[in-house]
Amino acid sequence: MLNLVLFGPPGAGKGTQSQKLIEKHGLIHLSTGDLLRSEISQGTELGLEAKKLMDHGALVPDAVVIGMISHKLDANKDAKGFIFDGFPRTVAQAEALDQLLASKNAPISGMVALEVNDDELEQRLLLRGKESGRPDDANPEVIRKRIKEYNDKTAPVAGFYKAQNKFKSINGIGSINEIFDAISGVIASY
Ligand code: ADP
Q1: Ligand 1 pocket mutation pick from 89, 132, 137, 150 by most atoms within 8 angstroms of CB
Q2: Which of 84, 128, 171, 174 is the right S-S partner for 178, CB 3.0 to 4.6 Å?
């Protein structure tokens, strides 16, 4: 089983690369951001609570996203593997994911981090906000808050996988295909 954690700050290109990876490897894409936006568009109670936090650039509580991932893992028992995109975003989420996967005998193969500097991220997110209408991409203050949340709470997750010798970082600036080739090179080494 190939279980890949795609890592990087908001706007690093995780969603774009996930689409290419699922096509090539037949994996299931688990994006907690997409799952939360789907709850919001369905108007569920979980979605309404999450929206308040997401609109301010704050993280949603660990228990909420861990529950969503657990549910999706159970719903896809015959999958060839998973791409985790936007999850785990805290060390507590990473610990919970290891436990969920241990019970399935299918550990994380590795984490690939896309490195992109803050100025480039802010520009990409503002552009995405114009094109997609995502409310959390429209406001520079919210974007900076998300990047701060990433640096404070999410960046330490890299250390969690480094300690397991499962961390590789690649340059997230370049053409979509160049970056995809770099990720594919890492996957080939598993
Ligand atoms: P981006 O990577 O551009 O920030 P996402 O779609 O991954 O976009 O996430 C959007 C928002 O959803 C985050 O700012 C956060 O509020 C919430 N979110 C997504 N995934 C998680 C998670 N694993 N833990 C907590 N909050 C999350």
Answers
A1: 89
A2: 174
